[in-house]
## 1
Amino acid sequence: MAGQGAGQPALVLLAAGGTGGHLFPAEALSHALHARGLRVALITDTRAAEYAGSFPAESIHAVPAATPSGRSPLKMAQAAFVLARGAFAARREIKALQPAIVVGFGGYPTVPPLFAAALMGVPTMVHEQNAVIGRANRFLAGRVKVIATGFAEVGGLSAAQEAKCRQVGNPVRPAVIEAVSPYPGFEGGVNLLVFGGSQGARVMADIVPPAIQLLSPEERARLSIVQQARAEDDDRVRGIYGALGVRAEIAPFFKDLPARMAAAHLVVARSGASTVAELSVIGRPALLVPLPGSLDQDQAANAAVLERAGGAIRILQPEFTPRRLAGELSALLAEPSRLTVMAASAKSAGIPDAADRLARLIAETAQI
């Protein structure tokens, strides 16, 4: 792969991997950069490279990466060794590609390329999607030129690092922008969308159907449910809704999730940064259940931002019981005008042009 030659548009090297939460905003940014006439390449870890084949980039490069986790000194040392190998590999890729800037999206797969780029004097930037900075971005924060943020305030930063912050919002995929539509009326009942991602679908299967059982027959008759459920939970979830006579569509994955979100009157979901951004851009109210156990408690912070804006109700997982959920649903069904107000509040917190804002900030930082 040739670097930036004479007469060629500048190349932006995006570093992302690990999860869709990091790849989705990078993908949205790539479209915005292409619209500005810039070239894009992706550098990621070997695991993410296997499913990043459709990523909109002219080339995809894989380098070793590992996540330092646990209390074992041996495992920490092994991860540090892999990250060091990754930094040397990333240095070779950066030297060949000659990018104008390297932009990271968090997660340890971004550490080797960002660390190598900073040592080489190549302009660098990280984008922090969450309301609390992640460990990988915290490690890189002192080394990069700019920290782009999804939220106005980000916890876990020093005063010097806060001075580098520029809020742009969280880039959302084109499918999300296409799904933006007015909040639906209630003539056909209330559409409830339930999803939780790979780490959250089990709790939704455990809590949501029993909560629906606790509603009155009149309340249940007004509901139409679309729920993500893992294959092992499908029969159980489907059986409860079937016995109750509730209209329900159950699947392990929805390819058209943004369109499903737009059709919903209420969403029950985890509060990853991408989910919160999509809810805000589309403008849909939500009951958000942050993923527990995270060292940074980033999902709890994300949910709190949307709750303060009036667009969501945050329920921490220990409080997420069938009785609590049934109470919230019953109250909203009794006063659906609250849902309409919450939808408007959620939309007011959205930044639909976040990808364009980030692309502009990248161009300014790299002077391209």
Note: Residues 73-97 form the longest helix (25 residues).
## 2
Amino acid sequence: MENANGTSWTEFLLVGLVHLKTPTVFFAIVLFMAFIALLGNSLLLFLIQIDSTLHTPMYFFLSQLSCMDIGQIFIVVPKMSVSFLTQRLAISLSGCVAQIFLTLTMGSSECLVLAVMSYDRYVAICRPLQYPVLMRRTICIIMTVGIWSSSSLIILVIAIYVQSLPYCGSNVIDHFVCEFPALLKLSCTDTSAFEKVIYLDNVVSSLCKF
């Protein structure tokens, strides 16, 4: 917490739902959508698991997307639900950074999986005779490990940087989930250089996906 000697904040307030005119309706809609998303992705994972005809690279990567979607829901919705029901809006700096790390890792991994799925369709259409070799199970697993590890390492750098920043201004985040840009605005140091590096990294990552 901040005090007279300028100590950095170690706790933040997520007030995204407080300003809503009908927070109960919004909360109910979010829970309903989360339930539908969990049900749909769980059924998809179940079908892919039990149906041997779906044990192909395309459905393997589709199951990865489902796992990422489920992960995103469990990262965001439980904390938001607790904050809404108990009116305890506080979240620690470590918890906020962990939420940022997990959400960004999932989001970055989803983009990479979509790129790999595009490659899978390209090989299937343009090189059908080589498809069983180029997209065999071992290759798919290696690509999946590469997706998760590369995304995690890149986002880990961001998380460590955000964790090390001093926060001596406001501790109010006008969202119901911790977001990287919102947290940077609360820092009492100049983060413009780091923001430019992140922007350049996003551009390079997008080009690499293409």
Note: Confidence is low (pLDDT under 50) at residues 1-5.
## 3
Amino acid sequence: MDWTMAPSGMVAAGNLVLAGLLEQGHEAYFVGGCVRDELLGRPVHDMDLTTSARPEEVMDIFPRCVPTGLAHGTITVLQDGWSFEVTTYRTESGYADHRRPEHVLFVSDVKDDLRRRDFTINAMCRGLDGIVVDPYGGQEDSERRLIRCVGDAEARFGEDALRMLRCVRFASVLDFSIAKNTWRGLLRQRDKLAHIAVERVRAELERIVLGPHPQRGLGLLARSGLL
């Protein structure tokens, strides 16, 4: 897997951050949207990293960084004019407001970190060697043009109700289908959207309407009852 869809300067800087973590004995990968978009042949605008290093260890390694989400294990590393969110492997629990986890536990296995993510196409990571780690079938779903939750859909949407709008947005923007079990889980949890702040809802709606297939997105919103 080559980074043909990302700016070369960003890739070079990201590789330096990844290598810096590896040199200190930690695991580290590019993760999420950048891996998904590269596989789909879509432009890559930013690159996030996931690592076994704890936040304080990340800050010790890199002289220029910002503790943007310290409680959730996220440090923004500044490298050669680019910024990279570096997040410690973690699991989450206790979503009291159907949006943010009350408890975050740092873990040592990247597969545990990928398991907490929303959809299989977002639950892939790529090492410095170009090998993609994909324990939940994200590459296959990308080829099938399918949006599918990682694990139980009803649980994923119950944890974070905004994921329902993200589901519709990805299906609309990418022109993908939604897996039957994922759609059923969305229908069962759609009332939870009332817990989400209106500015978050608006941001997702804008991305749907301004995307390449707005009619498809609005149609899915109408069919689901999320409107």
Note: Residues 161 and 192 are 6 Å apart (CA to CA).
